[in-house]
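Q: What would this chain look like folded?
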Amino acid sequence: MIKIGETQLDFSDPLMLGLAVVAALLLVLLLAVLRLGGRRDTVPSPLLRQMDDLGRTVQGLSDGQHQLAGGLKTIAEAQANAQTKMIQTVETRLAEVQHFMGESLHGSAVRTTRSLAGLEERLAVIDKAQSNIEKLSGDVLSLQDILSNKQTRGAFGEIQLKDIVGKALPPDAYTWQATLSNNKRADCLIHLPNPPGPIVIDSKFPLEAYENLHRADNKAEKIVAERAFKTSVRKHIKDISDKYIIEGETADGALMFLPSEAVYAELHASFAEVVREGFDARVWIVSPTTCMATLNTMRAILKDARMREQAGAIRRELGALYKDVERLGDRVGNLDRHFSQAVKDVEEIKISATKAGNRARRLDSFDFEDTPEISGGDVVRLTPK
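A: My prediction, written as C-alpha cells:
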C-alpha cells in the first residue's frame, strides 16, 4: 500500500494493479515520444495510431474507473444503509428480547419466591413432624422401658384396666385392689348381684414369652418358645382360679385381662387348647376390646338388678299415690258441695235484695201531700222516746 497525500493506493486490489500497469505503459510510451522529439516526422503512422488508440483506451479505462468508483460508492452507501437497517433491526430485536427476558426473569423471580415460600412452609411442617417423630420415638423408648420391667409392666396393665372399667361402669359398681377373705388382693372386684355374685378381674401380661416366640429363628427355638408361652399362660390361669374364685363369696368364675390385642390374638389363633383349659378352670381371658364388651353386659345386669331392688319401693309409692288421689277426690267433692250451698245462699240473697229494691221503689213513688195526717197514736216510732 502506497499513501500519496490523503490518497491511499492498495496494489493488492486487481483494479489498482491494472491501472498501475497501464500507467507504466503510458509512461514508457511518453518517454519514447519525448526521445523521438524532433524526429516526429520519422515516427511511423501505425505507431501514432496505436498511441492514439492506447490514449483512448486509457481514457476509457479512466472513465471506467470513475464509473466503478461511483458504483463502489453506491454499493458502499447501500451497504451502509443496509448495515444501518440491520443494526436498527438487531437493536429492536435485542430490545424485544431484553423486554421478554425481563418479564421472564420477573415471572421466574415471582415463581421462585413462591416456590421458596412453599418450600419454607413444607420445611416447617417437616420440622414439626420431625419433632413429633422424635417425641414419639422417646415415647416408644419409654414404653419399651416400661414393658421391659415386670413390675412396671404389671402397673401398665392395671392402668389400662382401670381406664376401661372407669369408662364402662359407675363408680359404685367396682372396687380397686379389693382384699378377699383369703387375704388375696384382686386388681378389680365387680359388685354383681347374686347370682352370679361379685367377680374378679386380674391383669396379666406374658410379654416376655410372646416376644421370645416371635424372635425364634428356627423350628427348635420356636418349639421351645411355644412351650414357654403356654406354660406362662397356664400359670396365670391357675393363679387366678386358686386365688380369686371363692365359693359363697365371689362368682363361680373370674376374668384374666390381657392388655395387648396382639397377645390375645396369638393366644386364640395358635393356642386354642390353652383357652379351653381356661374355660375349664372358669377363667375367661379378655382383651381391651372384649373386656369393654363384657363390662357393658355387666352394666346392663347391674341396672336390671337395681331396678328389681327398687320394685317394692315403687309399689309402695304407687299405693301412697293412689290414697292421695282418693283423698283429693273426697276433698274436691266437699268443695263442690260448699260451692253449691254458696250458690244457693247467693240466689236467696239476690231474691231478698230484689224484694227490698221493689219496696224502696214503691216508697219512693208515694205522694205524701195527699196522704191524710196520721194521728200520733197511729204513728209507729222507729226509736224510743
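Residues 2-37+44-91 form one domain.
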